[in-house]
Amino acid sequence: MDYTRLSDANEITERYMDSILIGESFIDSVKADTGIHFLGADFSMPVMTPAFSHLGSYGGRKMNGLEEYSLAAKECNVLNFCGMMENDMFRKIADTGAKTVRIIKPYADNGKIRDQIAFAEEAGAFGVGMDIDHIFGEAGYDVVVGEEMAAQTTDMLRSYVESTKLPFVVKGVLGVSDALKCAEIGARAIIVSHHHGRMPYAVPPMMVLPKIKEALKDTTVKIIVDCGIASGADVYKALALGADAAAVGRSMFHHLENHGVAGVEDFLMHVGNELRFIMSCTGFSKVSDIDDSALYFL
Ligand SMILES: Cc1cc2nc3c(=O)[nH]c(=O)nc-3n(C[C@H](O)[C@H](O)[C@H](O)COP(=O)(O)O)c2cc1C
User: Fold this and answer.
1) Is the pTM of this model over 0.90?
2) Can 195 be counted among the known catalytic residues?
């Protein structure tokens, strides 16, 4: 007989998120406003794009998928993210005019990290950061598309933060100790994430979020959540548990593949509209007011 145990962090995350339910509150409630002020800029909603990399062009269209979703982010006025890439690709993303945070890999080549930070700043990036959860692979230090990764110390991360005037975002925080180190080095935001389940049994980001929020309560570090975010309800739950914003992920993919810029725009607007609907139905007129009082756990 086949014996398999559930160890897929994506499935565990999905089940956890589905176990969180939402009560309603209509009397004295008004239509909610999803706008946010985030790291010095105004955005239409606390929904962000994922730090994707290595996308092709879809449906015979000329533009790369990364450029397409960046254009959609600009049109929807949401904060845009991108991941591992060389500088020429980042230039194309910056040229879309989207406010973009460039997430740089924990390369073993420290010079490459510094070069990509400097290039992002020069190209007009909104922010830079690093996905610290891609340091290790099962064979030791990870090798990503032929590039070696390496351990990153607190001092190394601090030196990246200090090397740029851009806000620095640490992606892949999934515990209190890393969250506190991020605050200590001057990171302006963290992304609570398990990087679509790289590690078996990684805790659902929303499950660890309240602890991280509590640990950072005396700091100004902003908290973004990703992994499994596919709807306005998911974003609402993240905000209620202490996040300032949430990023969609592979849920965006088929909209991008099938309908390009317009498809991603429709998807992001749908997520934002569902968020506004749920905020209105739970009596929260502003994003910053949302707390966990309407949440129920199965
Ligand atoms: C095709 C693809 C490429 C990705 N590339 C990167 C990357 O270069 N850097 C990074 O930090 N995360 C990268 N990610 C991870 C996403 O930013 C995000 O953390 C993850 O997809 C969230 O999980 P979800 O897709 O289940 O929502 C990538 C994900 C996908 C699907």
Assistant:
1) yes
2) yes
